[in-house]
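Weekly puzzle thread! Below is a chain. First person to post its structure in token form gets bragging rights.
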Amino acid sequence: MAASFRLGLIGAGRMGRTHLRALAGSARVSVTAITEVSAAARAAVPAPRASLHESVAQMLEQPLDGILIAAPSDQHGAIIAEVAAGGLPILCEKPCGLTTAQARAAAQAAAAAGVPLQVAYWRRYVPALRELRHRIAGGDLGVVHLLACYQWDEQPPSAAFRAHSGGIVIDMGVHEFDQLRWLTGQDIGTLAAVTSAAAEPGTPDVDSAQVIAELSGGSTGLVSLGRYHPAGDMARAEAFGTLGTARCDFLDPADGERVQLAALRLQAESFADFAAGGPCEGATADDAIAALDAAQRAAAAMPGLSGAALRAPR
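Winning reply:
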């Protein structure tokens, strides 16, 4: 087993703490430093062996092998630029900014500094989804007519989180748009969307959205998103082909977050290999840009915003 990879974590909120739980059992990667601007959040960090810091600059003075960014999405770009300037490989939580322009700027900052940048689409490390991808690519299901991806959360996040998340199709939907591309090997073209009413007056978000998309290889993609699933967080994918169908309930309320934690650990260990010069087995910056592009067009196609399907830019 290779020596432990020293990972610095930026952001100890909900997702940052989830990463800490996932990596607690890893022999390959250990979180040795954490940056969190909130004093209350720093005091509650469940990582007694990691040094705690108020700023990224302060943490970058520590001996580290790579950085995991789990700060709010609208801060991704600035943090990537700062970490890249420090010369450290970066694993950034999705969506790597709130717009394609922000994601491109982040990718350019990493490329200019010559540092590896991977985006944390953890579902690419779920064994059941990898098997589904293998079956689709191998032709087991024949010609795939429809790939449906569902993500319904137990309850909405806080209003403060939603104010900085970019809305349901960017906060949640980028996972599904990345899945559509990764599972089928096809790009996302024309799409249209329908939604519920606004979550509450003054909230720039909705509680559910359904998106249908034409894929470049002739398949159809369906993305179903919702903020209310009282049984617990769920996510699944279903493929319908001429030779068979397959349903993958990879995130089941009855199983809790076990699958997610296992995938996050595998992702971090794969990132450690990438940071050391190996291939990127996860999502690249280009993948993140493509997922954000689809999410932006889905948002623009929502009734009340444009009301019409938009075509993919050339």
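Puzzle host: Confirmed. Bonus trivia for everyone else. The chain is about 35% helix and 25% strand.
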